[in-house]
Amino acid sequence: MTIRTKPAEILPLNTILAGDCVEMMNSLPEASIDLIFADPPYNLQLKGQLHRPDNSEVDAVDDHWDQFDSFAAYDQFTRDWLAAARRLLKPNGAIWVIGSYHNIFRVGATLQDAGFWILNDVVWRKSNPMPNFRGKRFTNAHETMIWASKSEGAKYTFNYEALKSLNEGIQMRSDWVLPICNGGERLKDAQGEKAHPTQKPEALLHRVLIGSTNPGDVVLDPFFGTGTTGAVAKMLGREFIGIEREAAYREVATARIAKVRKFDREALTVTASKRAEPRVPFGQLVERGMLRPGEMLVNQRGQAARVRADGTLATDGFNGSIHQVGAHIEGAPSCNGWTYWHFRKDGQTIPIDLLRQQIRSEMT
Ligand SMILES: C[S@@+](CC[C@H](N)C(=O)[O-])C[C@H]1O[C@@H](n2cnc3c(N)ncnc32)[C@H](O)[C@@H]1O
What we know:
By secondary structure, this protein is α/β, with parallel strands linked by helices. Helix content is 29%, strand content 22%. It is built from twelve helices and 16 strands. The N terminus is likely disordered. It binds S-adenosylmethionine.
């Protein structure tokens, strides 16, 4: 499936592009992508084989695509792909980059140098990390993700309420405890070996995409590997573009994504951010005759204020907005007037927020 962004410019949606990510990104139209999730080579610099106490060999990341001659070479590579990524992002787009202590500090500095604006670093704490077999260092139990907007002041997507709901009503923190990818989710090759050494868990991408994209957004992953980003994007009704240099990984990813079923529309609806809801001034309730000038509003203790024609309230010599009058009565620095004030109808007291919701439902 493809869509046109500008005449003669085609975005290859839900496709895995074969080749080098910088070259491929440079072939795509500028400012066309909502979110980039990047899991670049970590430059692990492993020296020799690593063995477990029973002498079995640890299946570490020693692949050729993770090898760089020097930090300088890695930094140049990072600068190149981040420049290509930044060109692709829409002005309000954002990027996530995941890495370990081997590379994430270098990536972080390069992101800032390139003009990105770091919003958070999220620590993915692995609930089942690999032990430190030699006992010479701490168990390396986390990876770091940097979340950055294209530039300072950009209106990036953040589905605060949806993330809070995902966390049972508690504000989502920047430390995420999730298991590494294993069991049935871990893709295997024909020999029963791991198909890819660094396959990321779908749960991680689920949280990233729910939190920082909306259905229909275009998500690009320039280091696609087994296509975890594409698989979760498809489930969640987002469009994806993957880039991967290695044919074997592209094949694994293609087969994996073909089996994924998109969740239905209803399931994809998430709790809306209050910020995203259209603003309704209290005065509109008065203008539309839902509340009449002179009508009394009451708080839960029955203390009253009178509605005025300009959408303010008056009580005991104090006038102001619904919020200011509520705060004045409570002696509090602030007050949410929408939930504080009630109107009376048929012997019942009803929060004025209900009237605001009625107006909002007409707006969507
Ligand atoms: C850390 S892995 C990503 C794993 C992926 N997140 C997953 O869940 O399967 C990095 C991937 O980037 C690919 N790669 C490395 N350098 C590349 C480049 N310059 N262009 C395109 N792909 C590249 C590697 O082949 C490897 O599959």
